[in-house]
Each structure stands twice: as structure tokens, then as C-alpha cells.
């Protein structure tokens, strides 16, 4: 009976989506002052993707990740570069993907939030995304991921097409995995130097955040780090680790399977005053709750914690295709239907932000 109910619910959600207003997707490029330090080609560019409520006559097309002849993930459906739905102001959601991932890897979440009326701004972090060469600098300068959100927001606000639709008084942040770390920094947490994380991994080599089963390894050996630190510009940026990189515009943060929390100063977590909601899977072996999400939930005053039994880390990836399951069985094998996990995350985020961004501060 439980499975019949679940199937009926998914059918209902599909019907609702079929009659929902379309979502647009557009892309922009701006500059970020630390991007050149993190990018393998030393470009100062920051790419970001925007999902938004589109005009009712906009035609959506399937959005996938992977080669055209062999898509690996089904992200959703969007109307590319469609006009905005209307001239009204929309709540803003800044969205940070996980380590090694590009914006579209959290598109299943961003598109759903746009369908609920938000303008969602998601970034490709320089030096740590799915399209470019990964760098040691991007790991060492982890807190600059929050600066990427700041730069993307500023660029969107100044964009003649996007800016007029943004409600600058109602801004939330969200993220998955490393993106959860990023959203917490944007909401007020402060980061330690990467040495703190290295020390943690030296003492806990079997912790999932230290060997990163679910992502390509980024060069972070001691030799890699020493070579990268030798740059005066990198050294100057490393000195900013303990500074606040919070965005004053961000009023609340929703984070999924956040980590590495070991990089965050516990005192700064205890000092956070903005609403935070944490969702995690109890079966997450890549970013273990005990050393990440549960620590943050305990330290942050008033934080809400949503635990999903049987859910792992890669359950928060987009829907796997048959090719995805064949190519990445370690990413695409689930105890709980992936659609159920996505549904719960979307519903929880919509409830959280409807409450915390209901009124201008």
C-alpha cells in the first residue's frame, strides 16, 4: 500500500508539473577578483546560470547532463532564454553546487524552486566545476565560493533583463555538499584555513570527506599545496581565511548534506543568527553526518534538522538515466527512490523559504 501511495503521489506531482507555469534558463558571465587565482587558465571569469518563472507561452525542452548521444542525468525541463513571466519582483535564491559539479547538477532543485516563483542564481565555481580543470587553489581558497555568490548576485542585479525582476530585500542561500558549506559561509559562518581540514583528515583518514568517493580527486597533496602556496597572491588570499565572507543580503540558508563542516569555525556557527535548515541522509558515507551536518545542526542556534533514513549522498544528484546507472553505478544505486528524496528536499526548502523570506527585513 505504501508503494502504491508513493506511485500515486508521483503521478499527481507529474500532472501538477504538466500544468505548472514554465521555467526559463539563461546564462551569464561576470568577473570575480579571486577567480584568476583558482582557475587553471587564470581567467577572471565566473559563469552562472539563472532559472526563473517564464512567460506562459514559453516552450520547455528537456535538460540533461552528459554527452548528447548519451545523457547521464535528467535535470528537468526549461525554456532556454525565454522572457520572464511578468514584471513582478521575485524572491532570490543563491544556489551553490557540490564539489566538482557545475550549476546544472543542482538544476533539479533550482528548477523546482523557480517553478515555485523564485529567481535562482547558481554558479560554476572557478577551478572546481564539471567543465574545467580542477585546481589545488580552489580547495585552498574554499571560502571564496561565497564570494562567487556575491559576484553573481551583483551581476544579476545589474543585468538589464534579470535585474528588474529581483526582490533584493528577500534573498536566501542554498547548497549541496560543498555547496552547503558555501551557503553557511554566505549566511555568516567563518572558515578555517585548509590546514585545519588537512589535520582532521590526518587523524581521520577513513572519513568520507577525506577520500571523496563520489567525485574526481583534486590534487591536494602536500607537494601540490606547497607549490600553490608559494604564489604571493595565493598567500595573500589565504590570509583572509578567518574573515567574514557573509553576504548581508542573505537572510536564511537551506543546506543539503553539507560539508566539510570541519573547515568551519565552531564559534562562528554558534554565533549565527540567521535561520538555517539542514537536510541530510542517514546513510551518507561521502559526507558523514556525524562529522558534518550533525555538528552544524547542534552548533547553530535554532537550526532545524531533517534526517532522511536510507538516503546517501548521491541521492541528491539529478535523476540518473539508464546510461548514468551503467556508467556510474556507485552514484546511481539507491535504497530509497531518488524521486522521493528530491520531493522531500524541494518541499522542505519551499516551506522554509516561504516562512523565512516572507517579509523584507
Notable characteristics:
361 residues, alpha/beta, eleven-stranded mixed β-sheet, 35% helix
Reconstruct the topology from this structure.
Blueprint: H1 2-18, E1 23-31, H2 35-38, E2 45-53, E3 61-65, E4 73-80, E5 90-96, H3 107-115, E6 119-124, H4 136-140, H5 144-158, E7 166-176, H6 178-186, H7 194-203, H8 208-211, H9 222-229, H10 232-238, E8 250-256, H11 266-270, E9 276-281, H12 293-299, E10 304-308, E11 319-320, H13 322-327, H14 338-356
Folded structure, characterized:
The structure is a single chain. The chain has 361 residues and is α/β, with parallel strands linked by helices. 35% of the residues lie in helices and 21% in strands. The chain is built from 14 helices and eleven strands. Strands 1, 2, 3, 4, 5, 6, 7, 8, 9, 10 and 11 form an eleven-stranded mixed beta sheet that branches. The N and C termini lie far apart (45 Å). Residues 1-19 have low confidence and may be disordered.
Amino acid at each position: 500500500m505504501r508503494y502504491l501511495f508513493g506511485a500515486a503521489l508521483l503521478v499527481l506531482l507529474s500532472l501538477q508539473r504538466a500544468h505548472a507555469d514554465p521555467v526559463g534558463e539563461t546564462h551569464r558571465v561576470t568577473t570575480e577578483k579571486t577567480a584568476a587565482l583558482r582557475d587553471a587558465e587564470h581567467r577572471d571569469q565566473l559563469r552562472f546560470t539563472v532559472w526563473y518563472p517564464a512567460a506562459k507561452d514559453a516552450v520547455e525542452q528537456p535538460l540533461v547532463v552528459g554527452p548528447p548521444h548519451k545523457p547521464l542525468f535528467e535535470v528537468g525541463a526549461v525554456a532556454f532564454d525565454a522572457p520572464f513571466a511578468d514584471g513582478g519582483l521575485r524572491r532570490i535564491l543563491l544556489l551553490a553546487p557540490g564539489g566538482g559539479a557545475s550549476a546544472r547538477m543542482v538544476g533539479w532543485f533550482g528548477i523546482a524552486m523557480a517553478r515555485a516563483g523564485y529567481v535562482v542564481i547558481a554558479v560554476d565555481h572557478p577551478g572546481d566545476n564539471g567543465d574545467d580543470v580542477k585546481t589545488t587553489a580552489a580547495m585552498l581558497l574554499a571560502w571564496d565560493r561565497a564570494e562567487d555568490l556575491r559576484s553573481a548576485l551583483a551581476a544579476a542585479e545589474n543585468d538589464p533583463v534579470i535585474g528588474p525582476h529581483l526582490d533584493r530585500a528577500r534573498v536566501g542561500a542554498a547548497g549541496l555538499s560543498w555547496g552547503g558549506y558555501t551557503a553557511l559561509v554566505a549566511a555568516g559562518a567563518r572558515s578555517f584555513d585548509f590546514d585545519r581540514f588537512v589535520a582532521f583528515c590526518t587523524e581521520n583518514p577513513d572519513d568520507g570527506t577525506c577520500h571523496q568517493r563520489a567525485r574526481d580527486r583534486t590534487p591536494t597533496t602536500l607537494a601540490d599545496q606547497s607549490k600553490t602556496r608559494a604564489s604571493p597572491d595565493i598567500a595573500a588570499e589565504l590570509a583572509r581565511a578567518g574573515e567574514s565572507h557573509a553576504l548581508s543580503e542573505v537572510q536564511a540558508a537551506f543546506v543539503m548534506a553539507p560539508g566539510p563542516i570541519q573547515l568551519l569555525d565552531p564559534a562562528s556557527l554558534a554565533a549565527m543568527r540567521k535561520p538555517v535548515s539542514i537536510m541530510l541522509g542517514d546513510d551518507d558515507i561521502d559526507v558523514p553526518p556525524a562529522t558534518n551536518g550533525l555538528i552544524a545542526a547542534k552548533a547553530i542556534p535554532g537550526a532545524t534538522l531533517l534526517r532522511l533514513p536510507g538516503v546517501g549522498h548521491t541521492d541528491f544528484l539529478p535523476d540518473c538515466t539508464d546510461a548514468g546507472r551503467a556508467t556510474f553505478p556507485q552514484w546511481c544505486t539507491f535504497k530509497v527512490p531518488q524521486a522521493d528524496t528530491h520531493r522531500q528536499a524541494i518541499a522542505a526548502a519551499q516551506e522554509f523559504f516561504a516562512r523565512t523570506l516572507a517579509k523584507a527585513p
